[in-house]
Amino acid sequence: MENLKPYYLKKKKKVRCKKLYYGNKDKVGPPEPGSVGTAAAPARIPKGKGQSQAKVNISAALVEDIINLEETSEDMQAVIEALKEDFSRNLSVRTSPGALDHITVVTKDGKFPLNQLGQISQKSPQLLTVNMTSFPESTAAAAKAIRESGMNLNPEVDGTVIRVPVPKVTREHRESLAKLAKQSTNKSKEALRKVRSKSITQVKKSKNKVSEDTIWLLEKQIQQMADEAAAEMDKLLAAKTKELLG
């Protein structure tokens, strides 16, 4: 009578499925993202809660026909170096002759750095002078540029000589410089975003020649580079702010 049981009462056999291995028999699951240029493009794995985003490290040589990653890196580094120079030259608690060198003076003939129009010297710890004998017609414009430089300076014009008293270092002055440091950093980050956008636009031009995943990986790499550069700028700002506020 056992054989007469309806088919739905019969015990079903369990079917064992083999585990899927991807290159490594000790590891089960989907393949890890590989480098660009492999035979098969890696699958995108969404980032879950508590998961850290995997870092992308693409060989520049493999994608040189799409974008020059080394050039992108150099452009981003140039923005960082410009910020460092700005901090060093223009944002010091103690005003020195070098701090006035690159103040931009607007004249009827165009824009020029102050040190191209006048001779800057330090007469005493409390006084700087700018001799405008070579370009006397630009004396008023130079004094205006110094006054509006954001360095808390109040120049006095004496013929073709501009006298610049060095202000006492007050808490207000320190805070003003720290604010300028923040503004400079924001401008540098804007320049960094332009480098990133330009590079991503360049990558997207190759979307008809390479896989979608390759484009995605390259965009992620460029964003990663920009994030690292921005983090370095934040460190520079933190150090400068600490220095300025004392």
Give keywords.
246 residues; alpha+beta; Topoisomerase I, Chain A, domain 4; Gyrase A, domain 2; four-stranded antiparallel beta sheet; two-stranded antiparallel sheet; 6 helices; 8 strands; elongated; ribosomal large subunit binding
Describe the structure.
It is found in: Mitochondrion. One of its GO terms (molecular function) is ribosomal large subunit binding. Keywords: Mitochondrion, Protein biosynthesis, Transit peptide. Residues 83-245 form the Ribosome recycling factor domain. It comes from Serinus canaria. This protein is α+β, with helices and mostly antiparallel strands. Among the domains are: 61-86 and 171-245, Ribosome-recycling factor (Topoisomerase I, Chain A, domain 4); 96-165, Gyrase A, domain 2. The chain contains 6 helices and 8 strands. The chain has a 4-stranded antiparallel beta sheet. Strands 1-2 form a two-stranded antiparallel sheet. It has a two-stranded antiparallel ribbon with strand order 3-4. It is elongated and about 70 Å long. The termini are far apart.
